[in-house]
């Protein structure tokens, strides 16, 4: 009947609008049961369960053999790691696999079988599950004693496939690779040419005393290539040139030319290319996200225009305001956007909305999220008004910054004076007294600001919440110190009483005071701009952090499999050790720098030449490519904020919360109606009347 059809159209519109909000594809089943399943799948509970499952399966590597989750990483001192019994982690894996099977089954059903065969990610998802489950069966067959577990390398895929933004980012990175490859090829040519020059320049001579450069760094082609590759990272600079420089200062020209051409020109050229190309590809990705949002809104308009209550005499499709209000009440969306759209609808005098009006209403989704602070209290007393003006003035905040700076300087002076003293020789009277004074001032400042601004307005500023929280913690620590050790007095010395000594308590207070000095950031416009840029990256670029986790995890698991047992505990003198059976730790314990020695042993003696490929790949992906990608996005975010800084009010008055999509909002192109309708008519499950 008409009522059933209307309910279906309303539910379809709700789902399409939610798809638009989340930039999801609308190419899924749209019948009643599928819509219920779709909303259930994307509910917070289901997505939380899926995220928890991914976290659990990734975290298993911390307790599985041969990983060691111990307090210290030094093999000389750490206790044996907990080795879970066979079947424990495997049972948890099986539960995770079951969740993933349900996940891929629901996804496959919702998009339909025709779309399923076009979706490479879902095909890879199923293949990963099959291989992982087969490897899981092999593990149980060998009673968990097998040395290689392929499924551990595949686990990051579950994190990758669960994020649409991570997929887009990976696609953008993949599209940028050809341009990066040209510079990397030039870098390889640069490295090869200088390797040849080095082997000719530092060739072996008859005088063994003068051949130190050849012996240590340029004995053969692999060693020469490795030495210059490490020099490109500046990790062995200036050690690599010291033997040759000691022989003749002119040899330094070779190393200077190599470093200038490689580090200053080629590496920075790579950064410029990555910034230019990746920004273009990310812009295309964000453009497709905008198209998805516009398509979802238009799809909602089309299904709502099919409602029976729509006037048949209308020359063009339109949607009733009542139907849209009904959809908005049921749709999951930000309360700010929902209220803004409803306000616009109430201000609208018409009962029917055209496609353009409907689309314009939902442009609220594209706007910056603005957080306005509550008003200050209005006092009737003339004296209170003067108090409010004085303590609410910016100069009062500047005075607090000066006091905080004086506190930091006094702590530095005391630390310098007591640097060489034993704990028993220190007199903490002066430091305890000045800390008491400054903490009382911080408390008074906080109370006066609350008086002037009101509690709600005071707490609406992140800087005030940070400031107030640290002030309360400092006050609690100071009261606890006085309760245990009494008030500061000459000869006030540390004694161990309870959990912390007096010196520990004072150090903790001082660290919090130093940390509190960050309160000056909002008062310095340029510094605030830099900090907000970094915070925006942390909040909005989760996709990049996710891919970074994938890279780190994959290389960590590979490293565990390749170098298991490379550093042996004290007393193990197996023949697999280096130096013809001599124990690594025993040999290194006699050296001045134990950690440097261990790293040197691993990198030079223990690792075979083929294993160098692992470390070169790690350096290329993590340091060269990924760091440059991060720099590119950091620059883009900072330039965007810098260009708009004059158009906005002070950062302390209004807070703007930006997303990756909003970074490029000014340069994105709106899709045309023809493009939207053509895409809608290609929908595999939605059949429009026009």
Please supply descriptive tags for the structure shown above.
single chain, 690 residues, mainly alpha, Four Helix Bundle (Hemerythrin (Met), subunit A), two-stranded antiparallel ribbon, 29 helices, 6 strands, 66% helix, globular
What does this structure look like?
The chain has helices at residues 2-21, 32-41, 44-59, 88-111, 113-116, 120-141, 150-154, 156-161, 164-201, 212-216, 221-232, 242-247, 252-304, 321-330, 335-347, 355-361, 382-392, 394-417, 429-453, 455-460, 462-485, 502-516, 525-540, 542-562, 584-589, 594-606, 612-644, 660-663, 673-681; strands spanning 319-320, 352-353, 369-372, 496-497, 500-501, 654-657. It starts with a helix and ends in a 9-residue tail after the last helix. Among the domains are: 43-162; 382-523, Four Helix Bundle (Hemerythrin (Met), subunit A), CATH 1.20.120; 528-567 and 582-657, no CATH class. The radius of gyration is 32 Å and the shape is globular. It is mostly helical and 690 residues long. β4 and β5 form a beta hairpin. Strands 1-2 form a two-stranded antiparallel ribbon. It has a two-stranded antiparallel sheet with strand order 3-6. The protein is built from 29 helices and six strands.
């Amino acid at each position: 009947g008409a009522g059933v059809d209307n309910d279906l159209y309303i539910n379809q519109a709700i789902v399409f609008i939610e798809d638009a909000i989340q930039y999801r594809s609308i190419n899924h089943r749209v019948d009643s049961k599928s819509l219920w399943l779709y909303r259930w799948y994307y509910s917070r509970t289901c997505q939380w369960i899926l995220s928890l499952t991914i976290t659990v399966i990734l975290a298993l590597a911390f307790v599985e053999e041969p990983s060691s989750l111990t307090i210290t990483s030094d093999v000389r001192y750490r206790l044996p790691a907990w080795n879970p019994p066979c079947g424990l982690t495997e049972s948890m894996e099986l539960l995770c696999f079951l969740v993933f099977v349900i996940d891929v089954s629901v996804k496959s059903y919702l998009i339909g079988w025709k779309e399923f065969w076009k979706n490479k990610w879902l095909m890879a998802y199923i293949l990963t599950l099959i291989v992982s489950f087969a490897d899981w069966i092999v593990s149980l067959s060998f009673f968990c004693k097998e040395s290689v577990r392929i499924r551990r390398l595949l686990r990051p895929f579950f994190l990758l496939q669960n994020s649409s933004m991570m997929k887009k980012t990976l696609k953008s990175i993949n599209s940028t690779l050809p341009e990066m490859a040209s510079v990397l090829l030039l870098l390889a040519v640069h490295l090869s040419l200088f390797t040849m020059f080095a082997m000719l320049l530092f060739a072996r001579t008859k005088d063994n005393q003068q051949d130190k450069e050849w012996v240590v760094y340029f004995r053969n082609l692999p060693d020469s290539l490795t030495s210059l590759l490490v020099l490109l990272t500046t990790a062995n600079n200036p050690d690599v040139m010291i033997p040759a420089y000691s022989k003749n200062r002119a040899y330094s020209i070779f190393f200077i030319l190599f470093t200038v051409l490689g580090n200053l020109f080629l590496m920075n050229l790579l950064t410029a290319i990555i910034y230019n190309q990746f920004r273009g590809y990310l812009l295309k990705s964000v453009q497709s996200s905008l198209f998805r949002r516009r398509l979802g809104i238009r799809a909602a308009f089309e299904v709502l225009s099919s409602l029976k209550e729509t006037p048949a005499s209308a020359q063009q499709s339109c949607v009733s305001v009542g139907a849209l209000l009904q959809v908005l009440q049921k749709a999951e969306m930000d309360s700010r956007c929902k209220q803004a759209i409803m306000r616009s609808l109430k201000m609208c005098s018409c009962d029917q909305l055209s496609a353009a009006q409907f689309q314009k209403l939902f442009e609220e989704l594209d706007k910056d999220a603005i957080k306005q602070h509550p008003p200050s209290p209005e006092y009737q007393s003339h004296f209170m008004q003067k108090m409010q003006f004085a303590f609410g003035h910016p100069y009062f905040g500047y005075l607090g910054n000066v006091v905080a700076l004086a506190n930091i300087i006094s702590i530095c002076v005391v630390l310098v004076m007591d640097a060489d003293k034993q704990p028993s020789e220190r007199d903490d009277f002066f430091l305890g007294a000045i800390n008491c004074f400054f903490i009382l001032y911080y408390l008074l400042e906080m109370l006066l600001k609350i008086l002037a601004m009101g509690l709600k307005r005071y707490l609406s500023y992140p800087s005030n919440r940070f400031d107030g929280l640290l002030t309360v913690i400092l006050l609690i620590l100071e009261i606890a110190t006085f309760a245990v050790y009494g008030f500061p007095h000459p000869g006030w010395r540390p004694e161990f009483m309870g959990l912390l000594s007096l010196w520990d308590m004072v150090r903790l207070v001082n660290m919090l005071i130093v940390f509190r000095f960050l309160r000056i950031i909002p008062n310095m416009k340029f510094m605030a701009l830099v900090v907000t840029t970094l915070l925006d990256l942390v909040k909005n670029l989760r996709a990049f952090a996710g891919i970074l986790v994938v890279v780190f995890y994959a290389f960590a698991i590979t490293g565990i499999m390749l170098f298991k047992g490379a550093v042996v505990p004290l007393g193990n003198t197996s023949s697999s050790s280096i130096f013809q059976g001599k124990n690594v730790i025993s040999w290194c314990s006699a050296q001045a720098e134990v950690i440097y020695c261990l790293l040197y042993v691993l990198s030079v003696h223990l690792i075979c030449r083929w294993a160098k490929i692992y470390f070169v790949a790690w350096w290329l992906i993590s340091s060269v490519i990924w760091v440059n990608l991060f720099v590119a996005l950091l620059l883009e975010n900072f330039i965007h904020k810098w260009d708009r800084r004059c158009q906005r009010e002070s950062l302390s008055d209004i807070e703007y919360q930006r997303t990756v999509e909003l970074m490029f909002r000014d340069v994105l192109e709106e899709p045309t109606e023809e493009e939207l309708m053509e895409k809608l008519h290609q929908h595999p499950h939605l059949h429009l009347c026009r």
